[in-house]
Amino acid sequence: MLSITGSSQSSHCDRLSRRSFLRIGSLGMGTGICLSDLLQAGVDTPATKSVIMVYLCGGPTQFETFDPKPNAPVEIRGSFQPTQTTVPGVQFCELLPKLAAMNDKFSIIRSIVGMENRHESFQCYTGRAGGRPQDSEPAGGWPTFGSIVSRELGAGSNGALPYIDASPKMSYKPYANRGIHDNASKTSWPGFTGMSHVPFAVEADVKKDLVLNGINLSRLSNREQLLEQIDNIRQSTETAGIDSFQKKAFGILTSSNMAQALDLEKEDKKVRDWYGDTVTTDPAFGAPPQSAQHLLLARRLVEAGVRCVTVAFGAWDWHSNREGTIEYLSNRYLPNFDRAISVLLTDLEQRGLSDQVQVVVWGEFGRTPRINAKGGRDHWERTQSILVAGGNVQGGCTLGTTDKQGGVPIERPVHVQEVFATIYQHLGLDVNAVKIPDLNGRPRYLVDENRQPIQEILA
């Protein structure tokens, strides 16, 4: 594994340095290697379209975020008041003032349907259920959207890897971008696109298959020696053969553009401070921290030309069986969520990337209308609220209406695969034309049942 390490002068509140978390899977190194002073090149604005998908592990509450119900009974509306956004007639929870103040920059969909009651990232990364017999997965399993993009569009600008998972580490495996299912033994990964299209995981041991023999830390201080050794290794592997994991490893190691993007110390300290430090989550959730630095990493990756970046952000399974009531959890985690997402969106806009980079923020389902006896909200797959920004999506649109209790859509239910159709359109893939064969040779459309991009929110 290659660790991009550095000084620990500036630390997160969890005592991790800003650079200590950057570890590139698929490189069996045995020791940390500093690249920041070795590879010199700027990061070019991508000529291609990109997506950052922020996955909220565990399923966020719609009531305490984007669909408050101030006129409902207290056991439904909860403890917080609504706040008016920049869009007339649209209110968010009072704990999201920064997002409310820029609601004209993104769209909210309050009526998402089509998710199952399952704690897993698979639904958010594929738009489909998988892992169980009733799911009727095709031969090879469903691929994630990034794998499809990798297969159909290939490398991003500057030769960047097409698909990277920039999530922090987490202990509950179904939250990871690995196709591991909740309460199912089958793993639907990488799907019928094949192993060459799995995401390159920044913080995961995908496969330890590359050892840079003959390179030690002292020799790495010399750029010319480094490049000479890399060239020697490349020549030897041309005859010995190299698999897709190794190719990705070489792509990271030999691309100064990617090395720059992965090195957060290359970012202006004011920008790093603007994104903010990590807010740790209770280990009992098994979820990642709320790390705004990983969102900054995602921005740097798409800026470097990566087409699809996924980032898991925080713990949202708020039954009140862990850490505290939903009132406590909302006060603890929502202000940081509000700040981090608003900074990401503002940063993309200020850098002129809003038209090129689409951001989707969601979880696997919503939460129950009624607060439970412990003071939390349970799983609720009948609807949820999500945020979509940039690319082909206009700002200031609020689509879909739920009933007075916030439990079911009563106006314009939006299927999860319509969201994916919108993403594919932004990236340049026609859901009506592109078909990929599964492992039995049967052609598969990108979405089911002729679902189309969401016209109401298109720019």
Polypeptide structure, described:
The protein is of the alpha/beta class. It has a single domain, classed as Alkaline Phosphatase, subunit A. Helices cover about 25% and strands about 15% of the residues. The chain is built from eleven helices and 20 strands. Strands 9-8-10-3-11-14-6-15 form an eight-stranded mixed sheet, sandwiched between helices. Strand 16 and strand 17 form a beta hairpin. The chain starts with a strand and ends in a 14-residue tail after the last strand.
What's the CATH architecture? Answer: 3-Layer(aba) Sandwich
**For the largest beta sheet, what order do the strands appear in spatially?**
9-8-10-3-11-14-6-15
Q: Note the overall shape.
A: globular
Mean pLDDT: 85
Largest sheet geometry: 8 strands, mixed
What is the β-strand count? 20
CATH class: Alpha Beta
Produce a short descriptive summary.
The protein is α/β, with parallel strands linked by helices and 459 residues long.
Keywords summarizing the entry:
459 residues, alpha/beta, Alkaline Phosphatase, subunit A, 11 helices, 14% strand, disordered N terminus
Write the layout of secondary structure elements.
Elements (H helix, E strand, L loop, with lengths): L1 E2 L19 E2 L25 E8 L16 H4 L4 E3 L6 E3 L3 H4 L6 E3 L2 E2 L8 H5 L18 H9 L9 E3 L34 E2 L21 H18 L3 H11 L1 H7 L6 H7 L16 H12 L4 E8 L10 H25 L6 E6 L3 E2 L11 E2 L5 E4 L8 E2 L1 E2 L6 E3 L2 E2 H12 L7 E3 L5 E3 L14
Parallel strand pairs: 3-10, 3-11, 6-15, 7-18, 8-9, 8-10
Antiparallel strand pairs: 1-2, 4-5, 6-14, 11-14, 12-13, 16-17, 19-20
Helix pairs in contact: 9-10
